[in-house]
Predict the structure.
Amino acid sequence: MQDQDEVIVGYLIQREDAEGELSFWEPRNEWQEDPNEGKLYEKVEEAEADAKALQDGDDATITVELVFEADDEDWDEDEEEDAPKA
């Protein structure tokens, strides 16, 4: 469930195959493993239309997923984990 203060920045088209592997749609390069390389749609209607077209003839599950703005706290935690230990 979405928190009221979370900001939606766009939508990704996600594909999950029978083995549970996820990939993300990028029109020029097709399915990408990294969500950061997927096309970020600004309008849900456009993402849903493309997802429906992609689903035709594909046995995998294709869905439109919300992308939220990252909290500054999330970035700080990641940087602390990646920082070299002194």
Observations:
- The helical segments are 44-55, 72-82.
